[in-house]
TrEMBL record:
Swiss-Prot/TrEMBL GO biological process terms: carbohydrate metabolic process; regulation of DNA-templated transcription
Superkingdom of the source species: Bacteria
SUPFAM superfamilies the record matches: Concanavalin A-like lectins/glucanases
Every LamG-like jellyroll fold domain range: 342-466
Keyword line: Disulfide bond, Signal
Coiled coil ranges: none
One GO molecular-function entry: DNA binding
Stated name of the protein: LamG domain protein jellyroll fold domain protein
SMART domains recorded: LamGL
Length: 774
């Protein structure tokens, strides 16, 4: 009878070692007559790869009757692996029958002594330490700890009551980043054969992530969940029409390549990524030193810092440091408005002299407060939750190195004290930054810090545990060796990575929304992060994101950018484009027909070439008009905003859609930083529309019950009309309702100051009159 061979074949003997040595070694080591045997850890990398990417039926000879085994069904796509029995005779019978069909066998367990093993049967020993064991409960749940294991192989056991299906196995494979290699289930042998056969014939992607020193563990692939792969990885391909994109991510590292698109041509190739440690200062946006005064070493000068009654004192450890008391704080200024947007790390050396209920270390608007609450490190998102780390206590009258890390990828916070991670918490709502200044030793509730601060660093990226530990140790050593110096350097980092994604948080359940009969059906509008072939982002500076995530707008010349914007705006809604004559008048006035034609042709050709990396985004000439074709798989935030506005105009109250529109238009004014006479009518029309419509929406009694929405409406109105009195009334009314009277007075003061600056005269309406008129 012919035997079947699987991919991982091993030689029966070495070419360089005498045959008597091999015979003596195996007789001494495992007691096998002449069979070849090898541990998994001693296999070649090619042989390990074959085993990692193959599924087996796992047979426990201690529990299985030999009569129930279907040896005749053995095939390349349905290999077996066994757990030996304590009965040597039963093992020998199994080996003899198995060797009639196959010449290799995987054995699970520690290397042991077997007798009467057929001469031509090669054994591969897989120890428990080589694999993860996943025992599925009745609903198929997976232990979260398995998602960060660095073991290369995976064993699955589905007990009674667990309906193991091919779909469930694919989910396990996808969620763990490794193929189920050994499968044992309380089901029929024939059914299990079909499952293994399907797994082995299913398309897959696989590869390795490593550094110059070896395998790199703890790597996450974007859009593949929170699984951390341990160097080797494998994922099933469940849709051959939408092959996956691999983007590796690990705090503290960058990768080469940093992205691989899977294609039919490279599907079966091993994907290889090399990780390189980031420089310690990479992503550092702010580095505050506190001596005689407060300075930001990352800024050209510190004129933007506003210091309020911050004192200076001499400290035995750091020399001169800043002392905060009686409401002293520092306003970092407008340069900090764009900080703390996604991934971030904050570190600080603090020495509190008083611990009240709340003592703020750093605050930024209502969605970010890093403070000490009742003696414990705490992160607060107003209206959502106080994340109090009871495992992170801060000592009174002692220096502590504290750090806070936000991981956008994992949606988690990590707390550190003196270089050690003390806690990790999962956010119940995604973090979203606010457009406010950073305050040091205070926050919007005026929860002041009392004590000493020596240094604060902010990174726009996520630091890993090792980096924070290294920074703390370096600072600690530096302080010890330079005890007479004036200060000690502290390293702390903020992690940033960025996939520009659309996210927002909600404070109240939308079950309270008023449901009205829709006179207009809202079209299906894609989300910004749905994996589009191209994105056109018009709120804020123009961005054109291609399929690789690169901003093409940065490559456009000023003329090419204007050309794109003109054609884009004239292609919206029911517009059919712009004719050549009008286009020439706008961009090449005064040029001769011949010169304008040559310049226009060259400019359009170059623009088309640059847009070549944006599938389904094309500049076309049709019916004597230049038109921008935007395919269904392309995203335009301007088009989306117009559709939402049209829908909201026909609805009495639609909080759900309003919450989706606000994050789009809050990013900035339409085509910010661009000014041109031909653009002004578009800007003016859109500005008037959104201001008038948002004011009308704000008057709806049901909308007024959503205070967070009311504040957002006011902020958007301010973007387009920074002296809008109705927006001021809205904001003051909400702040007063929330009990934030001091913030309401400050908002009113800022409005009056801006009014006087613009019109050269005082705003005569008092705070009380504004509130009364609301």
């Amino acid at each position: 009878m012919a035997k079947s061979f699987i991919a991982y074949n091993f030689p029966s003997q070495s070419k360089h070692i005498p045959i008597w040595c091999i015979y003596w070694f195996w007789m001494l080591f495992i007691g096998v007559d002449s069979a070849f045997s090898q541990k998994y850890t001693s296999l070649s990398e090619r042989e390990k790869h074959q085993l990692r990417t193959t599924s087996h039926i796992l047979i426990d000879l201690k529990e299985t009757s030999l009569d129930s085994l279907m040896f005749q069904t053995l095939s390349d796509n349905v290999p077996w692996a066994v757990v030996p029995s304590g009965n040597r005779e039963k093992n020998s019978v199994f080996f003899n029958q198995y060797s009639n069909y196959r010449n290799q066998l995987v054995i699970i367990g520690q290397v042991g002594a077997f007798t009467q093993v057929p001469k031509d049967l090669s054994l591969i020993w897989v120890a428990d330490l080589d694999m993860d064991k996943v025992e599925l409960d009745s609903i198929g749940n997976i232990d979260q700890e398995k998602k960060s294991s660095d073991k290369e192989l995976l064993s699955i056991y589905a007990g009674h009551g667990n309906n193991l299906t091919f779909s469930k196995l694919l989910d396990i494979w996808q969620s763990l980043g490794k193929m189920p290699n050994f499968i044992k289930a309380e089901t029929s042998f024939e059914y299990l054969e079909n499952l293994v056969h399907e797994l082995n014939t299913n398309p897959k992607i696989f590869g390795v992530v490593q550094t110059e020193k070896g395998l790199l563990d703890g790597v996450i692939f974007k859009d593949f969940g929170d699984t951390q792969v341990g160097g080797h990885f494998s994922y099933p391909v469940q849709d051959t029409l939408a092959l996956p994109i691999l983007v590796p991510y690990k705090p503290g590292f960058h990768f080469s390549p940093d992205i691989i698109y899977t294609s039919p041509e490279n599907l079966n190739n091993q994907k290889e990524f090399v990780g390189f440690p980031l420089d310690a200062e990479y992503g550092l946006s702010h580095h505050f030193e506190f001596k005689d005064g407060v300075t930001d070493k990352m800024a050209e000068n510190s004129k933007g810092l506003i210091s309020n009654d911050v004192g200076a004192r001499k400290d035995s450890l750091f020399g001169k440091v800043s002392y905060f008391e009686d409401g002293a704080y520092v306003d970092v200024g407008i340069s900090s408005k764009s900080a703390l947007k996604g991934n971030f790390t904050i570190s600080a050396w603090v020495k509190p002299t008083q611990l009240g209920q709340n003592n703020s270390i750093l605050g930024k608007g209502d969605n970010f407060v890093f403070k000490i609450h009742d003696g414990f490190l705490t992160f607060t998102m107003a209206g959502i939750k106080d994340y109090v780390s009871t495992s992170s206590p801060i000592a009174l009258n002692e220096w502590s190195h504290v750090a806070l890390v936000h991981s956008k990828m994992e949606n988690k916070l990590f707390f550190y004290i003196n270089g050690e991670r003390t806690d990790s918490v999962e956010l119940i709502s995604e973090y979203e930054t606010s457009d406010y200044n950073i305050l040091i030793a205070s926050n919007l509730w005026e929860e002041f810090f009392e004590g000493y601060i020596q240094e604060i660093k902010i990174w726009e990226r996520e630091l890993n545990d090792s980096e924070i530990k290294t920074h703390y140790n370096q600072t600690k050593t530096s302080n010890k060796d330079t005890s007479f110096l004036k200060y000690v350097v502290i390293f702390l980092v903020l992690f940033g990575g960025g996939y520009g994604v659309s996210k927002y948080w909600r404070r109240k359940s939308e079950t309270n929304e008023v449901k009205t009969t829709q006179s207009t059906v809202l079209p299906k509008i894609p989300k910004e992060n749905d994996g589009h072939s191209a994105q056109i982002l018009c709120f804020g500076p123009l961005q054109i994101i291609d399929v690789q995530g690169l901003d093409i707008a940065k490559k456009l010349s000023p003329l090419q950018k204007k050309l794109f914007m003109i054609i884009f705006l004239h292609s919206q809604g029911d517009k059919k484009g712009i004719d050549t004559k009008r286009l020439t008048e706008l961009l090449w006035p005064g040029k001769s027909v011949a010169n304008a034609k040559n310049t226009r042709g060259t400019t359009i050709q170059n623009l088309r070439q640059l847009l070549g990396t944006c599938p389904n985004l094309e500049v076309n000439f049709k019916d004597k008009h230049w038109f921008l074709h935007i395919g269904e798989n392309c995203y335009s935030d301007y088009s989306m905003a117009l559709q939402y506005l049209e829908f909201l105009a026909s609805e009495d109250c639609a909080v759900t859609e309003l919450r989706k529109l606000i994050p789009i238009v809050k990013k900035g004014r339409l085509f910010a930083n661009t000014s041109a006479p031909w653009l002004d009518p578009f800007i003016e029309k859109f500005s008037n529309r959104i201001v008038e419509q948002f004011i009308q929406i704000s008057k709806n009694p049901m909308i007024k019950t959503h205070t967070d929405v009311m504040l957002d409406l006011a902020e958007v109105i301010y973007l387009y009309d920074d002296l809008n009195e109705h927006a001021l009334k809205m904001k003051l009314n909400v702040l007063i309702e929330q009990g934030k009277l001091s913030l309401a007075h400050q908002a009113c003061h800022n409005f009056k100051k801006q009014y006087e600056k613009l019109y050269g005269e005082a705003y005569e309406v008092s705070f009380e009159e504004i509130i009364a008129s609301q």
